[in-house]
Design brief:
about 220 residues; three-stranded antiparallel beta sheet; 8 strands; about 50% helix; globular; binds 2'-deoxycytidine-5'-monophosphate
């Protein structure tokens, strides 16, 4: 088992960008577990499987291969051999992903794959349940959070990048709806681990966020 850095928190808390940079500075492998739930969601939408059909959605998680690759400093997600990095960020996937990730069978398959990834490498893994469920004994645990308006502002850019123009209010509503489902589901909900260090990023710059985490790990 390598060194495990778990970073959890809600969408727009700055988790992904921070986790990526922390991994780069430490020379660790970065794992985006949200992208894994999004990829299963994309495939369920493509196959027109109703998310209420939990067994069928869990079967999809079993069948597909999800992998990551850095291409010219950009982190890409693959569904089998197809690059789905942009497709998994669409608002259609965002709307459905909380329902897919509430399915216990899906969570069990993906959590097992996440545990296998730590067998070989030192990792920075970000998600919702990494410090609580996937790696309750992680070497370092962080919980990132921020004010809802700040989080919505951060997401606006992500949507613009894929050509979707959404208002702050629309995005704030989407985030709140997802937070609610993610924190109230019965299987491994979004929750701060008791021993996680809280990083509130509302008033922090990106560099400050990264430094806080890297400094704790290196000391
Ligand atoms: O981090 P993100 O916004 O890309 O995650 C998408 C969704 O996946 C999020 O709404 C909840 C779910 N998720 C989860 O349930 N558990 C994880 N470890 C990561 C993400």
């Amino acid at each position: 088992m390598g060194i495990i850095v778990a970073i959890d928190g809600p969408a727009g808390s700055g988790k992904s960008s921070t986790a990526k940079e922390v991994a780069r500075r430490l020379g660790f492998t970065y794992v985006d577990t949200g992208a894994m739930y999004r990829t299963v969601t994309l495939e369920a939408l493509r196959r027109k499987v109703d998310v209420k059909n939990k067994n069928q959605v869990a079967q999809i998680a079993q069948e597909i291969t999800i992998s990551f690759k850095w291409i010219e400093d950009v982190h890409h997600t693959f569904l089998n051999d197809e690059d789905v990095s942009d497709k998994i960020r669409s608002s259609m996937v965002a709307d459905m992903v909380s329902q897919v990730s509430a399915i216990p069978g899906v969570r069990e398959v993906l959590a097992e794959r996440q545990r296998q990834m730590a067998m070989i490498d030192n990792i920075v893994m970000e998600g919702r349940d990494i410090g609580t469920n996937v790696f309750p004994d992680a070497d370092y645990k962080f919980y990132m959070d921020a004010d809802i308006r700040v989080r919505a502002h951060r997401r606006i850019k992500d949507y613009k990048n894929i050509g979707q123009d959404l208002s702050i209010d629309e995005i704030a509503r989407e985030l709140q709806k997802r937070d609610k489902i993610d924190s109230s589901r019965s299987h491994s909900p979004l929750k701060k681990a008791k021993d996680a260090i809280i990083i509130d990023t509302t008033d922090l710059t990106f560099e400050e966020q990264v430094k806080k985490i890297v400094t704790i790990i290196q000391h």
